[in-house]
Write a structure and sequence with these properties.
The chain is globular and about 65 Å long. About 10% of the residues have low confidence. It is an alpha+beta fold and about 250 residues long. The strands form 3 sheets. It has a 5-stranded mixed β-sheet, covered by helices on one side.
């Protein structure tokens, strides 16, 4: 039986063995490829960023946008001399702090709109996560046309969307997209906002959201730095169960 590493051990191994700096998404891919950890979780990128900026901040140095290199004093890792450090251009931190996760064109009829609706999402290869407590912005669609944009803050995403099943927009939308700001941990729990966000990161996030949501024909690329994790919608299990029961009831005895 394979002995798995902790995320911190896996990140250290990958960076120590790397010939140079690596982007945190490359670190995630390498960890997955070598099957170093037992559970990759819904958002491995968020886990790696949290480790690199937290308990490992004195071991791994940021040398560019999303790029990290291992540094230590035991000559087993990559050495970054002071003279080299002084020459490294200061680059804004990842836009990851602003938009951490998003979902595109989710179906309204895949959700049970009760007093506490659950927005089930899943990342490829990850676990199912209830994203109803996210904060951020959202768009409502009638087919492919955007008919309304809104913000979810103190009244979180699930409840804000639930409001629109009962207000003047109740019969006018069938799909929605959302862009969340709270980080999603490895075990599917929502974290907290960072203390401050730079103007540059906010502008990058705004551009990325607009391009992703509106798909302007003249934009040839996705918005800079939209590294939030996309979640595919997962239909509420109670809907599937009700459909199965109804189908069974229609069978001849």
């Amino acid at each position: 039986m394979a002995k798995y590493m902790t995320w911190r051990e896996a990140i250290e191994k990958v960076l120590r063995e790397a010939p140079g700096a690596m982007h945190y998404t490359e670190i995630a891919e390498k960890i997955s490829e070598e099957e170093l950890v037992k559970s990759k979780g819904a958002t491995p990128g968020a886990t790696i960023i949290a480790e690199l900026r937290g308990s490992m901040k004195d071991k791994a140095k940021k040398v560019g946008r999303g790029m990290y290199v291992w540094i230590n004093n035991d000559n087993n890792g990559i050495q970054v001399a002071n003279s080299t450090e002084d020459k490294i251009e200061k680059i804004e931190e990842d836009q990851y702090d602003v938009i951490t996760s998003f979902g595109m064109y989710w179906r309204r009829n895949a959700i049970v709109w009760d007093s506490n609706p659950k927005l089930w999402g899943i990342q490829s290869g990850g676990s199912k996560v209830n994203l109803s407590d996210q904060i951020g912005v959202y768009l409502l669609y009638d087919g492919r046309e955007v008919i309304y944009t809104g913000m979810a803050d103190k009244r979180r995403l699930g409840k804000r969307l639930g409001d629109h099943t009962r207000d003047r927009l109740a019969t006018r939308w069938d799909r929605f997209s959302w862009f969340g700001m709270l980080p999603v941990s490895d075990d599917g729990k929502l974290g907290s906002l960072v203390d401050s966000i730079s103007t540059n990161k906010i502008l990058l996030a705004l551009e990325a959201v607009l391009i992703e949501a509106l798909e302007p024909r003249q934009n040839r690329r996705q918005g800079d730095g939209l590294r939030g994790v996309e979640f595919a919608q997962n239909e509420d299990p109670s809907i599937t169960k009700k459909a199965l029961i109804k189908a069974l009831e229609g069978l001849p005895g």
